[in-house]
Structures are given as structure tokens and as C-alpha cells.
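Lesson 9: reading folded outputs for more than one chain in a single document. The general rule is that every protein is listed as its sequence immediately followed by its C-alpha cells, and records are never interleaved. Here is the first one.
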Amino acid sequence: MPDLKGPSAPDDGVFLARCYRPGIGPCVATVRDGELLDVTSRLAPTARDICEFDDPADYLGSAKGEPIGAADLIARNANEGLRNETEPWMLAPCDFQVIKACGVTFAGSMIERVIEERADGDPDRAEEIRNRIGQRIGTRLLDIEPGSERAAAAKEALIEEGLWSQYLEVGIGPDAEIFTKSPVLSAVGTGSRIGIHPKSIWSNPEPELVLACNSKGSIVGAALGNDVNLRDFEGRSALLLGKSKDNNASCSIGPYIRLFDEKFRLEDIANATIDLLIEGEDGFVLEAESDMATISRPLTDLASQTLDENHAYPDGFLLFCGTPFAPTKDRDTRGGGFTHHLRDIVTIKSSGFGALSNEVAHCADCERWSASASHLMRNLAARELL
């Protein structure tokens, strides 16, 4: 089996982490010089509490902590099939925050796929369709601002071409697709197994950046995420989105939340590049890259559409930003495209964020989610942290 990649991160950032310490329970942590420090305290016993500070990075950057081991080794111990139960292991870096996700935020790549399908793979026909629509709306399809007058004109043109769909409605329409990805505390962290449904024959990772937002909707940092997806389930019906997205261990976030400070700002997220590596036991390798600069909507718009006067999240939320990634590389048969195999190693990396690495398994074979909010509250109370 290919090795899990460590979560190593730069030395000059401020990183919020969580880990499980046997005999103690879930702990809030940070990483300094490659070592994980337990910084759990009565002032901030949860990751949610740290994100609620006026300056989370200032608090965490100066917090005193207990060294508990090398971050890379603790991440490797998260795989439940290989775990030493007497040593700490990494958890997802969020706790009470709701886990939300956006879809079709890279509308340009979605429109391109729709046009290519309509053109049956003929590049000349595809270019003809692009030019015809571009002449009508006065710009390139890739330059459309969602919700704008040109977006409305593009919608009319695409309908006439027989290309409109509910996916494009949320791609260039005024309202973003925002859904609940996973229950509170159900996400797994780096090193753990990620789950695919055993009835799915067409599944893939979705490498994304995940915004960390406080209860006011302000973005305080970001992490890497894998919005594990069952393409066959969702393809059968959009009403199966919940079954496609929310299964045991089907949401991975980590290795840390990098918090905003003087060296890391919102523009660094907006201009980040995300790298994906899939390595299979069969020797299959898939590498891909996505550029956050090509996202259709501003990150602040996605956050403000999630939390506004109509919808509150008093513990804050984590928000998957979406991805243009749709793997087409053949794996099993010519023309068959890509789907996961069991024991694939999926690694998502981005400069300044470290690496999120997980092994693929069937949902029922992943560690069953059993530590809910009630369990965490009882644990913190027993430790006299509340």
C-alpha cells in the first residue's frame, strides 16, 4: 500500500488542530516546529471557542501547550486499521461547527463540460457553440459573474442551445448551491480512512479548500478538505445528493485550520493552488491541480450566503468551497473513466496548508462515528474544562 503523506506545514503559520489523547479525550492543539502541542484550557476548551476570539491567531500563537509528539507520527496513527491505541491520533480540526458545502462554484469548468458533451467531443463544434453564445452575451462564458445581467443573458442562450440544467442554475444564477455536508463532529482528519458506499460503482474525491467561519459569518482561516462524492448516486437524481455526500467517514478535513494573521490573509486562499494525488495498490496514479483563482463567486459571497439574517450558526461553520475536479482518466477499462478502488491513498496538498491524506475504504469498514456533541460535553465537564 502506498504510504500516507505526513501533514507537515510551514513554520511561520498559526495552525489550529485537534487530536485524541488516550485516557484524556479530544484535545485542542497547535503545531510548532513539527510538534503537536495540547493547548486545551478552560478559556478555550474547543476549536469553536478559539475561532470566536477577536484574533484567533493571536490567542493560539501565544498559548502555552503540552508537547505530545511529532505531528506526522500522530497523523499516521489516525488510521484505525494500524492504530496504536495507547498513543494520540489526529482528528478533524473542527468540533461544534456545522459542516456546509458549496457546489458548482467553478461554473466555467461546468459550462465547458456541458458544451463538450453537446458537441460529442468534437472540438470544432464545441468552439462553434462557444462563439455563438459569446456573440450573444458579449463576453466569454468563463468571464460571467453569477447573478449578473450577462449571466441572465447567458442562461437564455444556453436554454436555446438545449444546454441548461439545474447545475448551471446554481453555477451562474444569483443563488449559490449550499448544503449541509456532514453532521457536527462527524468529519475525519488526516490519516483516517475515508468511506465510499459499497453500492457505488462511480466514486471520486473532491479536493477543496474549506473556510473556517465564526458565528458572525466572518472567515477566520481555512483548511483542506475532501468532499468525498458518489457520482453515480448523484447522477441518478439530484434528490440523492444527501445519500451521495453524507455517509460514514465521507468527509475529511485537515490536517489543520490555518488561521489568518499578518502573513496569511483571505487573498492567499483566493489565489491558492490545490494539488491532488491518488495512488492505488494496482499501480494506478492520478495527479491533478486546481486553481482557486478560477472560482466563479467571491469567497466572502459564499460565506455571506451561508450565514445571513435568515440563517444562523451560533457555533460557526466550516464551508467547502467546491472544486472544478472531475476525473476522466481511464482506470479499469478504456473509456470507463475513473472510480475509486479500495485502499487508494488520496492526498490533497496546498502550499501553506500542509497535506490531507486518507485511505479509501467502504463506509461500514471505516471507524464508526460515535463521538457526538453530548459525548464531548460530558468529557469536557469531567475534565473540569466547562
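And here is the second record, again sequence then C-alpha cells.
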Amino acid sequence: MQKAIKKYFPIFVLPTMIAFTIGFIAPFLLGIYLSFCKFTTVIDAEFIGIDNYIKAVQDPEFIHALWFTALFTVVTVLVINVLAFAVALLLTKGIRGTNIFRTVFFMPNLIGGIVLGYVWQLLLNGVLAHFSRTLTFSEVYGFWGLVILMCWQQVGYMMIIYISGIQNIPGELIEAAKIDGASPRQILRHVTIPMVMPSITICTFLTLTNGFKLFDQNLALTNGAPSNMSELLALNIYRTFYGRTGWEGVGQAKAVLFFILVGVIALVQNKLTRSKEVQQ
């Protein structure tokens, strides 16, 4: 059986590899090439070197979007993971109606980003109207509106991952800690958190990458207003590519820089949290 699997393995892998090459590798390599070109369509690309990258890093809107996205990601990673972990702890205490609560918390993750953006735009603008403000009054309102939306959507999903991690903790460890006189806080710090480090790694990775690549919700909630000050990186790249004539190559260069940035951050985060798992 093992020999048969090894013999026919390439046949089963080939269709997936062809689809992956056509759908990802080829467009990705073409995109890298176009980032060094001036073009309006693929067939009229003219190689110009690193000019697009120079324009990209000198674009003040791109730099603002970078720092705005970084701040947004840090805040959402912390808030989402703390809330999700707290809710997971609560829902693993054996309280009545746990399954209903899990379903309710998870449901927002099933709603599309555009729909969520417009729904929360109506809700938050309705609340802010009492103070003669809107989400687009300043970037601060847009920032916290995006944070609220992101947390509401993702806490339930991360909660499921944390619940799985908590339920996999051997009961003997908890009982031994209690026998030794450990307080609930000490059990949380020295037993629960170390044992759910794999879940923390996964949730941190997901919230980190989701924060950096957020697009639909940003487009629907604030559309970058006022004056593109609440614009995240993905929306800035979209506007550069499709909204600024002659800047298609710059938009492609921004996309490549964006890919490298997210990839490096994700790898560093994964390495750091994995090292914590090893230490535990």
C-alpha cells in the first residue's frame, strides 16, 4: 500500500500544482516584474528599474497608511486575543447554555466584510450622531470604529481555537495544582497559559495577518475618509493602482512591499511564539 501511494503520488499532486502555478505563482512572478515597469496594461509594460519603489516609499499617504495599519494591528491583536481567551475561559467552566453562547459568538465571523462594514457604519454613525459626529469626522473615529468592527467579527473565531486548547489541558495538572495550594490566578499563569501556547501562536498569527491585510471592512466603513487619513495599507494600494493615473507600477510596487512586510512580520511572530512553546 505504501509503495502504491509513493508510485502514484505525483499523479494526485500534479493537478493541484498546476492550479497553484496558474492561480498564484505565475501572477505573483508577473506582478514582481510589473513592479519594475511603467504600464497601463500587461502588454505595454516598459522596464524602468526601481523608480516605482522610490515613488512608493516617498508617498506620504503610503507612509501614513503603513503606520496607521501597524497601530491598528497592534491594538486589534491585543484586544481580540485577550477577549477571546477570557470568553473561552468562561465558556469552559461548565455553565449552562455554553453551546448557544459559542454559536452566538462565532456567528459574526460568517458575515462578509463588506456587509459588516455597512452595518457597523449605520450603527456607529447612529450613536455618534448624538454628539454631532460621524466616523469620517476624524481618523480617530474611523480607527476605533475599525477596531470595534474587527473585534466583533473575530473574537468568536479565536474563542473556538482557545476553547480547543483549554479543553486539551490534562485534568490531572489542574487537580495537582489545586492540591499543591495554587490559587486560580496561579493556575492560570503557570498551567493554563503555558499549556495553550500552541493556540496562542495560531491566534496571534491569524489576528496579525488579518489586521495587516484588512480591506473590505475599511472600504465599507470609512472608505479612507477623511482625506484618506483612515486608510489602511490594502486600501491605499487599491487606490494607487486603480485611482491614480500613471501610478499603476507604483501600486504594484506597493503590493510587493506589502507582501514582503506581512511575510516577514508573520515569520518573526511565528518564530517568537514557537520559541515560547519550546521553553514551556
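What the second record shows: The radius of gyration is 23 Å.
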